Structure formats: structure tokens, C-alpha cells
Amino acid sequence: MPKQKIEVFAILGKDDSLTEKTFQQITSTYNMTEVKNSEIRFKWIMFGLKTKDDSAFASGQDMATAQGRMKFTRPLYKSMNAWRSEETKALFIKNRPFMHPTTAAMVAKDIGVN
Length: 114
What we know:
By secondary structure, the chain is mainly α. The chain has helices spanning 2-12, 20-29, 38-50, 54-66, 70-83, 85-95, 101-111.
């Protein structure tokens, strides 16, 4: 089941026709706010960021703060920065001292922070 959810959210995240309302319905139907699996959570958040859902942005902030893997961190910061640059940069500056130096350097480059 986890692999199916990962694939479904990967596909949904590529569909430009889906809206914030669709994201909210899927989130509610499948109780996505309670999912702990990082792979599923990441794909779900990326889908929500694409629809510009406020709760997805908050979840992205949480995951970018708690999850240090570059696999998740860089795409999260890039997607959040594309939508809410100032908030994303402020989050990065706050989190930077706790990040792996390589990850911090790559994210800084990605979002334009010195």
C-alpha cells in the first residue's frame, strides 16, 4: 500500500489541472495529516504545494525542519520558495545551523540565500 500511495501522489503532483480543493478532499478522505511515512508524506506535500494549499505549506515547513535528508529537503525548499519566498528563506535561516553543511549549502544556492 505505501508504494501505491507514493506513486499516486507522484502522479497527482504532476497534474497541473488539480486544484487546492482536490488536495483538501484527498487529504481529508485519506487522513493524510496523520501519515508518518516520509516518502508518502513528501509526495503528498509536494502535491499540495503545487496546488498552493496553505496546510501543505505548513506541512512542508514542518518536514523541512524535522527531516534532514537532502532527497526531501532540497525539493521542499525549492517548491516552497517558488510560492512563498520570504517565509521560506526565513525558515531556512532559522534551520541552517542545524543542517548538514552540504545540504545547507545546496539549499542556500537553490533559494538564493548567501
